[in-house]
Amino acid sequence: MRDPFKTRKMPTMPLPAASPSEGGAPRSSDPATKAAAAATGSSPSLSSPSLSSPAPLSGRASGIPLAPPSSDSGWTTGPAAPERTTDPVMAVPASEGKDRATLTVLTGINAGQVFALDGTEHVVGRGTDADVWVEDGGVSRRHARVTCRSDGRYFVEDLGSTNGTFVGAQRVEVGEIRPGDRLQLGPNLVMRFAITDDAEEELQRRLYESSTRDALTRVYNRKYFTERLTAEVAYSRRQRVKLAVLLLDLDDFKLTNDTYGHLAGDMVLRLVSAQMTRLIRVEDLLARWGGEEFVILARSTGKTEAVRLAERIREAIAELEIPVADKPIRITASVGVASMQDVAPEGGPTELVALADLRLYAAKAAGKNRICAEGP
Questions:
Q1: Rounded to whole angstroms, how far apart are CA atoms 116 and 122?
Q2: How far apart, in whole angstroms, are the C-alpha atoms of residue 296 and residue 174?
Q3: What is the mean pLDDT of the segment spanning 29-50?
Q4: Per DSSP, what are the bridge partners of residue 213?
Q5: Which helix H or strand E contains 130, and what residues bound it?
Q6: Counting runs of H as helices and runs of E as strands, what totals does the chain give?
């Protein structure tokens, strides 16, 4: 039996004779050639077709160059391409956008966020009534005021903040700010003042939105929520402020996808997220946790208030009519609620979310379309 792994002996092929152009003398090792040369008394003719330089090993016919000469403009690799002309179009320069003053956050979880200063006065602070609302524990509720004077110059004024206002490295009570200056509020928040046009401002907004928002539902993404939760838990521990997390899952969402298709499922996710956005406060945070799961971070909210919020959201989702396939469909949700008072003193954001997740699965196991805020 033939061994397929045994190396086969291949016949050895002699090397072709070198041509004079290759710098070597012709070899006349062929016995027939030697005999013919001896009979005629002359050396083998290089012009003889049978004794000419061997064909290239690649199988190309002799005399055909392997590559086009760089100076040969007539070389083509195929049929000549038809002549193509460019349509004459008059170049109209784009109109210049309107210049406006902006503040761009450079530090913290909101790095990249852009605020337009369209008016003459803007209050910057942590309070929800501030014109420029920033989320940083070291910033006062009404920290500073940015003013545009009649001559077009901008000034920043400290409003009696706890941690001060800085332009560059200098603490100021009232100071002028110029394009490119860095404005620091408190120990951590740094913002850059600039004069930009509409196109540049829109680009900066889109970049920030794409890094923090879910592309389908336009609520915050999981990465942003995780960073924000870490800061909020630390602030809650330090200041003894209430904090709650609501983890929500749409019931039988896979059945909706299988029955009506994934486009219908996408519509359900968008409408449900829009409904929840209308029910939460400005200071709360709604994010897509993954798939059909959403999470809400409720600031200054204890367990009782969190359960009430969860019940309002559950009822609103159950009453939502989603038009799919010429008929409205309904969907329900289960919610797990956990607050900081449920977590051990050494626990952090991971333990808080894990507890909400356990209670969510308890609500699922108990029959779905309900809330669980106790145990295990």
A1: 10
A2: 39
A3: 49
A4: 220
A5: none
A6: 7, 18
